[in-house]
Design brief:
Blueprint (H helix, E strand, L loop, with lengths): L3 H10 L8 H10 E5 L5 E6 L5 E8 L13 H8 L12 H23 L4 H19 L6 H8 L3 E7 L4 E8 L3 H13 L6 H17 L2 H13 L13 H4 L4 H11 L5 E7 L3 H11 L23 E5 L6 E7 L8 H11 L6 H9 L3 E10 L4 E9 L5 H13 L8 H15 L1 H4 L1 H14 L5 H10 L3 H11 L6 E5 L5
């Protein structure tokens, strides 16, 4: 195992073949230890004794897809509040703080209601002043950053979290002799979170939205693309939430969402590093076993209807044109998922890919092209983004992209292109082997949001079976120009 980073480097240089490395994945799969608690929370343990470190990732199957109208942004909001502490961490006196928080919420409710109902300015100002006074009082009980500082004092690094459409992840790496600290801290956070500094943090995420979307023409363009790509499904909601919803989210909203979706049976924790699986399981049982069971969250029943035609939006806000193009594909775990990954590599991945070579290097229509795939629980997409060269419109680039896709019929994908795509895919896929944190992420993510963690180790064999004809069939099936969603940013009128 100590030589794996060198193996990856050698693969990148092309000095050793990829075949044979697949055997490593078989060996790795056999070393994963599964453990499930009576409350339904799952743990995947992978021992690696190269360094006295251990990485942990907790994946919760909850994201913006679980939000409803009027309450968008809750999943991301919870991620921000996750490290504010518990009833014992982050406070000088939780009993007094709890009373202060109730008074703060009441003061905010009175101010917010008066403002929405159009009360006179004197009343609104007075109620706002009372809200600020209550907020200051509640803040007096807060020990700023204590949750993260405890980890830092014990050698922790990489403490972070992220939210997507389908899941929320929490990351941390610690010295392996501090693993029990993680058990104590995280089990307490999951069982007894206190969403302190809620109104201050809400201002932070509102500013985040303004920076990345409302005041960013290209972020706004992508949000428009997302909203028209989905007619019925909540995938059309922005992960950050709509501004009006975010401004109205309350502590009660946050608590209700947490109690509904942060259930043990929707959580997987992956633990990778210098630990003993038997000792780890003993600690897991002692700490996380105390988290009570909860009912299953409501199932999502909305499905996105088939797209009957082209959907498009045109904006004139930016200083340079931009093209976004989206095709609906398949959900995570679908048999065509890997075929679409290879097709994406052949079309746009690196300077040797078809569209990049033709549109960027030869015809010089685009300055750059980027293609990504959405791997979601309830559906997926292939998404292309491109920046035209100076003097070229986004509409002209769109036409050129469609011409290249149409040319696939006369110029089919070759075995050489497929072999190169498979080689690139395998190099990317082996990265989790070399890193505790990335291995932990992929284990927990596959277990909770894909077809189970074992699928992580089965994919290399599946990729090897894919043929050129499979890629051609996928292109015809999913890259239908008559069912595309397009967002164009043209140069702002002077």
């Amino acid at each position: 195992m100590k030589n794996l980073p060198r193996i990856l480097f050698a693969i990148l240089l092309g000095s050793i073949p990829l075949m044979g490395i697949a055997d490593t994945y078989t060996d790795l799969e056999e070393r994963v230890v599964e453990h499930e608690l009576p409350n339904g929370m799952r743990f995947l343990i992978f021992e690696r004794h190269d360094a006295p470190l251990v990485s942990m990732v907790i994946t919760v199957r909850v994201g913006s897809v679980n939000e409803v109208t009027n309450k968008t942004g809750l999943a991301h909001f919870l991620e921000h509040l996750a490290f504010k502490g518990t009833q014992t961490i982050g406070t000088t006196n939780y009993k007094a703080e709890r009373k202060a928080l109730k008074e703060l919420d009441a003061a905010f409710g009175a101010y917010h209601s008066a403002k929405k109902q159009g009360a006179d300015s004197v009343t609104v100002v007075e109620l706002y002043a009372e809200f600020k006074q209550k907020q200051e009082r509640a803040s007096g009980y807060v020990v700023q950053g204590e949750f993260s500082e405890i980890y830092e004092r014990n050698g922790g690094s990489g403490l972070n979290a992220s939210t997507s459409c389908d899941y929320t992840d929490y990351y941390l790496t610690l010295p392996s002799n501090r693993f029990e600290l993680w058990c104590a801290m995280e089990s307490d956070r999951l069982a007894n979170p206190v969403f302190r500094e809620l109104y201050k943090e809400r201002d932070v995420i509102i500013e985040e939205r303004r920076m990345w979307i409302d005041n960013n023409p290209y972020g706004l363009l992508y949000e428009e693309l997302q909203s028209i790509a989905y007619k019925a499904h909540p995938y059309g909601h922005p992960v950050l939430g709509h501004l009006s919803d975010m401004a109205n989210l309350s502590r009660q909203d946050v608590r209700a969402f947490y109690e509904t979706y942060y259930v043990p049976q929707h959580m997987t924790a992956a633990i990778v590093g210098d630990v003993d699986a038997n000792e780890v399981i003993t600690l897991i049982d002692a700490y996380f076993g105390r988290i009570p069971s909860k009912p299953d969250p409501p199932e999502l029943i909305t499905t996105e209807p088939g797209q009957p035609g082209i959907r498009r939006v045109l904006m004139k806000k930016g200083k340079s044109p931009r093209l976004y193009m989206l095709f609906h594909t398949v959900p995570a775990g679908h048999p065509d998922e890997l075929t679409l990954e290879l097709l994406s590599i052949v079309l746009i991945s690196g300077h040797s890919s078809r569209l990049y070579r033709s549109l960027v290097e030869e015809d010089k229509i685009a300055s750059n092209l980027y293609l990504a795939r959405g791997n979601f629980t309830y559906g997926g997409y292939v998404y292309l983004a491109g920046s035209p060269m100076q003097g070229v419109s986004a509409a002209r680039l769109e036409k050129a992209v469609l011409e290249e896709l149409a040319a696939l019929k006369e110029n089919p994908i070759t075995q050489e292109e497929l072999d190169a795509a498979k080689a690139r895919w395998k190099v990317w896929y082996y990265y989790p082997i070399a890193s505790n944190s990335s291995m932990a992420f992929f284990l927990s993510w596959y277990d909770r949001c894909k077809g189970g963690w074992r699928e992580l180790f089965d994919r290399v064999d599946e990729v090897d079976k894919i043929t050129c004809q499979d890629l051609m069939d996928a292109a015809e099936r999913y890259l239908d120009p008559d069912k595309r969603t397009v967002a164009l940013m043209e140069v702002e009128d002077e």
